[in-house]
Amino acid sequence: MADYPFTVLILVSTIAVSWLSWQRYGWIDRLIFDTDAVLRRGEGYRIITSGWIHADMAHLLFNMFSLWSFGSALEPVYGPQAVLAPHLAGIVGGKIISIDVIDIAVPIIIDAIAGDLIRILPHV
User: Model confidence at 94, in pLDDT bands (50, 70, 90)?
Assistant: First the structure.
């Protein structure tokens, strides 16, 4: 675990925030990405916080398994930026795309990490 602390940090914090959002009334409504809230009410924090909530346990487990699979392989070799940069870029980029195009709900974070892994693997 010491070889991939940022992967573990993202994983644990995402599980905790998702779990709490299911248990506490109103959390999902305050954290979820909402174009109107971001653009009209200035609630830009939702761009980031929405990356830490998941619709249900299956959604959370699939995404955390994917994060663990890629993050635990990338971080020890390439450092925390190999996990953090694609993770945050996927969250922010996905929300910017959905503001400009449509409100999409795809696992952009995992796509970003997978793209990074595909780019790196030929050099390993």
Answer: confident
Predicted TM-score (pTM) of the model is: 0.75
| pLDDT higher than 80, residue 98 | no
- Cα separation, 12 vs 17, in Å, equals 9
Between CA 59 and CA 65, with CA 64 as vertex, the angle to 5 degrees is 100
Please give the single-letter amino acid code of residue 97. I
Amino acid at 115: G
CA atoms within 13 A on the CB side of 102: 3
The domain segmentation of the chain, as residue ranges, is 5-123
* Amino acid (1-letter code) at residue 23: Q
DSSP at 32: S
